[in-house]
Give the backbone structure.
Amino acid sequence: MGAVPNEPMLGTKPVEFGDTLRIKGLTKREPLRVNQVRRVRKRGMIAALAISGCALAASTVTPAVATPASMTPANATSTPTLPNPSAAPDAPSADDGLWYYTDTGVAEIHDSGITGEGVTIAIIDSPINLDVPDLAGARIHPRTDQLCPGFTGVEATERARHSTAMASLLVGNGAGIVEEPGVLGVAPDAEILHYAVLGVAVNECDAPLADLVTDAVEQGADILNLSIAYDSPNDAQKAIDVALAAGLVVNVAVQNQSSDRLDLLSGMPGVVSIENVDQGGNPDEFSVTGPGLDLLAPGVGIRMLRTDFSGYELDDGTSPATAWVSGVFALAKSEWPDATGNQLIQAAIRSTTPEPTTASTELPPRTDSSGYGRLDPRILLATDPSQFPDENPLLEVGATADPTETPPVTPLENAPAASRFIWLVGGFVAVTGLYALLLVVRRRRYRRGR
């Protein structure tokens, strides 16, 4: 099945519409049904569809005139597929969805005594359910109320599913629910700083991304996990600058939609952008390519908690792939505690398959379709990062990607008279639609994800 549809990302200035954070989508594999990560508010959907319709109509009637960037959704939308509450999905068998743990060498690394001890990972995501068995005993520190007093972000609601699933992939103990085996964390002894701002109301938390990252830095984070999309260029750039200046490894999921360009956050220079693949190293039905793509990681058929926390299902997506990479970086940091974030990145991009089983001193070749390749924890854990320069190797590579770039607009004076008239009418209708969206979006700074 296709991914849960996302809201459109409009090419507007943040001062007009406010910041927008969204969860990277998850796609449950057949024969299991798709559970939505979010519920779209009716008014927001109506406004978004109205603008999309205006843009589509303008491009259809006047193909010689490009649609203005501010009216063009960066990602297409479709009607959400609602789960059938009367038909519970079949539970995965004991070994289903754990290949990210058993087939990649993570289990053997744990057996050697490396479990992420002494490393701190910050995750900025949805609220979290700390009562699930897989997180019992995990060292998770909710930090949301430090920036948004009175709101902890800890709850057992449907909107807590995404963050709970990401935390389980990082530090899960595999306890399971009833008779179902649980989720095993890649770095079970790492500490988690948790920030809940996705899918929450403005009166619950309205903290900018940069403030969240600043707090994570002050609390000693080593790694930042961002399985999210974000549309505010100024705040996003400030947040990433803060993280990179402090030496954090910043892992960002690319969008779950085929594209030859990374989205805003994953396309930023210096971050580790991650695409998901299956056990054979093949992508799922979506493929994101571009000069800013860095690593491939397990993200197809991954065992994850159901939305109602009653059991488990198999999901696809760049979100679990990114959490997996954050866990692997935590293992490497635990093994090589004196290594800087830059050196860990240097080692990671040299520790990919199907390259040789030992890391090279030279940067490996990369492609826009697979980045540097699929990260291999075994190679990374056997590689001393201190031999590499304390420089972020992705700053120059990522700089070639421009996620905010928009298609050139044909000058109006060069269009035929009929096209100019239709352009003006379409522009008036679209601006009216944008105004309607403004009234909706200004009511909430953060919105739920795909």
Confidence is low (pLDDT under 50) at residues 1-19, 29-90, 398-423, 438-450. The domain at 99-398 is CATH 3.40.50.200 (Rossmann fold). The longest strand covers residues 120-125. The longest helix spans residues 417-441.
